[in-house]
Structures are given as C-alpha cells and as structure tokens.
Amino acid sequence: MRVSRKQTVFTGVHDIFISRPINGANSIVITTDCGGAAEDGLPEKAIPDGTVVKLRRKAVSQFVSAFTDSGGECTQNTFDISPALARKFGIVNNTRYTVTTTAVHGRGRCAENR
After folding, report:
1. What's the rounded Cα separation, in Å, for the pair 15 and 82?
2. What is the residue-wise DSSP string for 19-44?
3. Burial level of 18, CB count in 10 A (0-12/13-18/19+)?
4. What is the DSSP letter of 83?
5. CA atoms of 35 and 75, how far apart (whole Å)
6. Alpha carbon distance 97, 114 (integer Å)
7. Domain 6-112 has CATH 1.25.40
C-alpha cells in the first residue's frame, strides 16, 4: 500500500546570527512573527519546536534540532546558528538570508523539514 505524501513549502527572510545556542552546537533557534519586520519570515508553525530538520545549503547538509521562538515586538525575524554550523555552511554573521522549508506530510504528521 502506498502512502500519499503532500509537500508544503514555506519561504521567509531571516537575519542570521552566529551565536552559541543554549540547546547545543547541533541546534538552531528560529524567531518568527516579528511585528516590526519589514519582510515576512517563516510562519510560526512551519517547523514545530524541537523538530529535527535537515539543513541544506548547496551540497552541504546536516541534521539539527530546530527550536522556535515567537518574536512579537522584535524588529526582524532571526535564525541563530552555532559557530561550527556557520563555518560548515559558509554563513556570514548578521546577514539576511532567504530560508525555505519543505514539509513532507504523510499519515497526518510532519515527516521531514529541510
């Protein structure tokens, strides 16, 4: 029996900061829904808090734990990444990136985000 999979794609603009996430070097923190942001970030529910996601940039990829934070009154949606992950992916501190996530849904739950 084949299970039908539905893909949902979300895209948002986030300022990426290199910092030491409190949840470890293999984690990222995504702040969404900033009221003062000039551009839309990823929707708050695009990546559920604590989900393991596959980060990918060009030919480089790695699984990490993603934690989310709702910004409210902040000025820009942000994406915090560890120094080790930033080096691996060639991320420049305090730079604006377009972030895309693809959620693959099967059997009523999110199976993968990237």
Report:
1. 14
2. ---TT-TTEEEEEEEETT-SS----T
3. middle
4. H
5. 7
6. 15
7. no
pTM, full prediction = 0.76
Report the SS3 class of residue 89. Answer: helix
Give residue 4's identity as a one-letter amino acid code: S
What is the residue-level pLDDT of the chain in tens, covering all 114 positions? 444 566 788 888 889 999 987 788 889 998 887 877 777 888 877 888 888 888 888 899 999 999 988 777 788 888 899 999 999 999 999 999 988 888 655 433 333 333
Length of the chain, in residues = 114
Handedness of CA 85, 56, 45, 77 (dihedral sign): positive
Domain boundaries, the chain: 6-112
Q: How is the beta sheet containing 27-34 ordered, strand by strand?
A: 51-57, 60-72, 27-34, 78-81, 6-18, 95-106, 109-112
Tokens of 24: 């470890």
For the chain, where are the alpha helices, taking DSSP H only? 83-89
